[in-house]
Amino acid sequence: MAKRKRDQSEEDGEYNPGKSSRQSSKRGSKLIRDTNPNSLVTHEKEQSTRHSKSIHIVSKPLPIRRALLKWYATVRDSRGMPWRKPYDPNLRIEERSQRAYEVWQTQVATVIPYYQAWMVKFPTIADLANSSIEQVNALWKGLGYYSRASRLLQGAQKVVKDYQGIFPGNSKDMEQNIPGVGRYSAGAIASIAYGERVPVLDGNVHRLFSRFLALHALPKSKSTLDILWAAATAMVEREDDTPSDNPHSPANATDYPGDINQALIELGSTICKVRDPNCSVCPLGSWCGAYNETEIPLGDIEDLCTLCEPLPEGQGGVTAFPMKVEKKKARAELDIVSIVEWRSQEFRKFLLVRRPDKGLLAGLYEFPATSNIPSSKLKAAMSELAHKQLLDVLEDSVASYKGKKSKQKEGDLSAGSKYQITSIKPVGDGGDEPPQIKRPFTTQKHDVEGQDGMSLNAFWTSITDVANANIGTGVGKIWNLALSTFEKDIDSI
User: Fold this and answer.
1) Is residue 32 part of a domain?
2) In this structure, is residue 1 part of a structural domain?
3) Which of the four, 45, 114, 288, 428, has the lowest number of CB atoms within 10 Å?
């Protein structure tokens, strides 16, 4: 990609990272040599990015902000995102709280159909607080990260109980007191809904500022994150240092912090993409360190950047940032999952078990399972554990299941996990009704067809309804694997 030249008008009065002189080939060959024993530079580490740490600072954000907001004004409505609304300084506190609730949902449900369905089902935070984990999971199905849905429910209940249904008006209270609201979400909600001058740093903004500041360092290290958060903060802070100004006044509408943060997210998402970034149309291209391969001449040794790592040999340009880190190999886990079928002359039903209301995958349904089985004990444990799983759930007819009429299949699923599936069919016709389920469980409302009004920690559902129950993505993969494995010869089991 060709480098973009800047004219004098672009540099006057703006953040100027210096004359463009750093070439990626030089970055890969220069080494720091320092004989001073008191030097801050580590001698054991060959540092190939000889540049001043000042290039990692946004020192004059005003012209950058102006260019960013001018661009954002042309694209804000282009993708038809229903949660994006023009800044309105005249909203009452109740209306701002509702706006905060709407923004909160976008931090976790960024797919438009999910967002729209969510806001129809739970139009206010009080509606969400009065729902159940089953209702929440039913809408969330397909998005993954079900713990987020659980925390949304807990957070809504906290706001209704402790804040009279009005979302806290500042990021500090949100982050410290509302489940499911971290630093990023708090910054987005507080800046967009309440006009607080606080930053955001999601994956898009992280990538954007890593390139903008030419920061090639471990992406998740504290030092790296501190630099990126500082850059994001500089973009939303007022340079005239007047914190007493009313952030909701019309005079500040042109640099409203919520618009700045949304503009950064949009720019990272649509222009500064992971692959094939469209640098030629980026409104911040004039200041981008990675795009211009810019280096400030060195001063004192104390000004030398000791954080950046060498660029990979032969690699340079914008897509070299952020620094690529080799992912750790996912830990392989072997679980025994029993897919239990009851079949009569007319029906085929399968056994699902409900997870607890709190913790991992809260409130979701799954097949009876035993987790993390040592591979050396798998064969010996298969029949015994499959039987024990049923003893934990069923009241009667258990003996007919022990080690009989079963099939096993090992499958590879996401996250490096392996699942050993045991499909068990009752002896004979199985009777007119499936075995009764043990019922010392707390009742909950849920949306499974035929189970209205009461749900126990386990239930039987038809073969056609398994995929529509509140099961997570992993359980859905197990079910599909089981169908493809067993359905073709189910009658021969």
Assistant:
1) yes
2) no
3) 428
Backbone angles phi, psi at 444, to 5 degrees: -140, 150
- Residue 192: phi and psi, rounded to 5, are -80, -45
Residue 243: inside a domain: yes
User: Are the beta carbons of 173 and 179 closer than 8 angstroms?
Assistant: no
pLDDT band at 383 (very low <50, low <70, confident <90, very high): low
| Domain contains 328 | no
Domain boundary among 320, 351, 366: 320
Instruction: State the chain's mean pLDDT as an integer.
Output: 77
Do 229 and 272 belong to one domain?
A: yes
269 and 140 together in one domain: yes
For 417: left if phi > 0, alpha if psi spans -120 to 50, otherwise beta; the answer is: beta
* pLDDT, tens digit, 9 for 90 and up, residues 36-63: 333 333 333 344 457 889 999 999 999 9
**Higher pLDDT residue, 250 or 238?**
238
Cα distance between residue 264 and residue 55, in whole Å: 19
Q: State the residue range of the domain holding 420.
A: 334-492
CA distances from 84 to 92, 103, 111, 270, 346 (A): 18, 9, 13, 16, 51
Q: Are residues 279 and 408 in the same domain?
A: no
**Both 161 and 230 in a single domain?**
yes
